[in-house]
Amino acid sequence: MEKTIDEARDVACLYLVIPCYNEEQVLPVTAPRFLEKIKEMEGRGLISGESRILFIDDGSSDSTWSIVTALNSRDHRFQGIRQSRNRGHQNAVLAGLMEARSKADIVISVDCDGQDDFDAMDAMVDKYYDGYDVVYGVRSSRESDTFFKRFTAESFYRILNALGAETIYNHADYRLTSKRVLNAFADFHEVNLYLRGLFPLVGFPSTTVEYERHERMAGSSHYPLAKMLSLAFNGITSLSIKPIRLITGLGAFVSLVSFIGVIWVICKVASGDTVSGWASTACILCFVSGVQLLSLGVIGEYVGKIYMESKHRPRYIISDRTSGDE
Ligand code: UDP
Ligand code: MG
Predict the structure, then answer these.
(1) Tens of pLDDT, residues 187-205
(2) Out of 28-37, 85-94, 269-278, which region has the weakest mean confidence (pLDDT)?
(3) Mean pLDDT: which of 123-137, 153-167, 265-279, 288-302 is highest?
(4) Ligand 1 center from residue 164 Cα (angstroms)
(5) 225 CA distance to ligand 2 centroid (A)?
(6) Which of 95, 102, 177, 196 gives the lowest tally of CB atoms within 10 Å of its CB?
């Protein structure tokens, strides 16, 4: 006879971790939908009655925090923490995960703008009961994106993997993690956060669930091109040292070419054919100094990262909490 979930094991307590930055337009639209989802899953016996929706206000300058506190006083399933200032999406998610891990059995991190399909959560929780500790939400298509965003995003995953950083193709930060994964993850102390690349390093059984990514329900994106590039660069340099190895390879190649060049010059001198031209000299000079500056820049990036890591500054500071429901 088939066992129901209740008989098979305890019903898991789920926390949704939802970062919000200046989302006063979006929260009133999506918050009731998150609540609906939680209630529906609870009604089907998939998650326990202690499950909560945890908003992390990432130092918003609009009325986001007052919306969160109002939601909390309306329904205790809505909880909120507030960062002392804007620290960026990755740090906001981290703050939420660390806050939730002591209370929840499973945590799903999801954007607050309704772009991540709510209905994928059921499949994620099912996978958890099947024995997976990490369930990565993977976008099934990128049709709602502009050609430019689609192209840059897809090239990014290819470059990351080519550079040796293990990442899940088309996975952003829509992800289920179990308590034991979060407890292990708490020992990762790095300041340069690239969460989607760190969870594969934590290990434990993992799988993926496909979902459709929709348009934002309201408001506008906080990830302009410059921020996207910075996240991408941070991803590569915090997960892999392959760029430095490539520089070594490039250095070896340029040295070899130069060595051949020197032999050629010696032959020319020996044969008396030494018509000096500034063009070739200038070209070589430009090329070599360009390569050197670029290489210095990449190495500098790693040195900068070491500098930031060595300070051991806190990765998030919580300034306010909504009232608890104990
Ligand atoms: N976000 C955040 N801090 C920031 C920027 C964004 O917490 O500094 C949140 C934002 O409220 C949203 C999620 O991160 O819930 C993803 O941001 P957004 O939708 O602007 O990015 P996109 O989906 O366009 O990549
Ligand atoms: Mg979004």
Answers:
(1) 999 888 889 888 998 989 9
(2) 269-278
(3) 123-137
(4) 27
(5) 13
(6) 102
Alpha carbon distance 323, 166 (integer Å)? 40
Does 113 contact ligand 1 (Cβ within 6 A)?
A: yes
Cα-to-centroid distance, 221 and ligand 2 (Å): 6
Instruction: Dump strand ranges (E) for 65-199.
Output: 78-83, 106-109, 134-139, 171-178
Task: State the distance from the centre of ligand 2 to the C-alpha of 186, rounded, in angstroms.
Answer: 26
Which residue in 115, 321, 147, 107 sits closest to 218, CA to CA?
Answer: 115
**Over the stretch 273-298, which tens digit does the pLDDT of each residue have?**
776 676 777 777 777 777 787 788 77
How does the average pLDDT of the chain come out, rounded?
Answer: 86
Q: Is 170 left (phi over 0), alpha (psi -120 to 50) or beta?
A: left
Beta bridge partners of 176: 108, 135
What are the E-state strand segments in the chain?
14-20, 52-57, 78-83, 106-109, 134-139, 171-178, 206-211, 318-321
Q: Within a 10 A sphere around the Cβ of 101, how many other Cβ atoms?
A: 21
Entry pTM: 0.80
Q: Which atom from ligand 1 is nearest to the alpha carbon of 23?
A: 11
Beta bridge partners of 65: none
| Pocket probe mutation, ligand 1, options 63, 89, 229, max atoms within 8 Å of Cβ | 89
**CATH code for 14-148+168-222?**
3.90.550.10
DSSP letter string over 132-152?
A: -SEEEEEES--TTS-HHHHHH
Residue nearest to atom 3 of ligand 1 (CA): 89
